[in-house]
C-alpha cells in the first residue's frame, strides 16, 4: 500500500474567523456542510453520509485558529485539518485545509473538498 501524501488547499472566505471556526469545529456547524449528520462525544466526532458512519478524534485545536482531526481507521500519522489564517497583504480570512491522499487521488480529493467548501460558502453567505 502506498503512503499517502499531505496536500494543502486554500480558500479566501468573507466572514470572521470566529464564525468560520464554529462551522469547522462544532457538530452543528459541520452538519451544515461537511456531513449529513454529525455527533460528538468525548472529542470523538461521528460523521454520517448516506447512512455510513466514520469517526474521527480531535487531536488538537485552538479556538478561531485551527482544528485537527484523525480518522480512527487511518494510520496514526495522517490527519485532516482546518486552519484559519489572515492574509498579511489583504487582511482577508483564508480557510486552509490540510489532508492526506494517495498521489494519484489528490486531484479528485481536492475537487471533493471544493464541492464541500462551496456548500460551506453557501451557508456562510459567501
UniProtKB/TrEMBL annotation:
The record's Pfam families line, in alphabetical order, gives: START_2
The protein's superkingdom reads Bacteria
Give the START-like domain ranges: 1-125
Q: Which organism is it from?
A: Flavihumibacter petaseus NBRC 106054
Protein known as:
START-like domain-containing protein
Question: What InterPro entries does the entry give?
Answer: START-like_dom_sf, START_2
Q: What is the lineage of its organism?
A: Bacteria, Pseudomonadati, Bacteroidota, Chitinophagia, Chitinophagales
Amino acid at each position: 500500500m502506498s503512503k499517502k501524501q499531505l496536500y494543502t488547499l486554500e480558500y479566501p472566505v468573507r466572514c470572521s474567523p470566529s464564525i468560520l471556526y464554529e462551522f469547522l469545529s462544532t457538530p452543528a456547524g459541520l452538519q451544515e456542510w461537511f456531513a449529513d449528520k454529525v455527533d460528538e462525544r468525548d472529542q470523538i466526532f461521528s460523521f454520517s453520509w448516506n447512512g455510513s458512519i466514520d469517526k474521527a478524534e480531535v487531536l488538537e485545536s485552538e479556538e478561531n485558529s485551527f482544528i485537527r482531526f484523525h480518522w480512527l481507521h487511518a494510520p496514526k500519522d495522517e490527519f485532516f485539518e482546518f486552519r484559519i489564517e489572515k492574509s498579511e497583504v489583504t487582511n482577508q480570512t483564508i480557510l486552509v485545509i490540510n489532508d492526506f491522499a494517495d498521489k494519484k487521488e489528490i486531484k479528485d480529493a481536492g475537487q471533493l473538498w471544493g464541492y464541500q467548501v462551496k456548500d460551506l460558502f453557501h451557508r456562510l453567505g459567501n
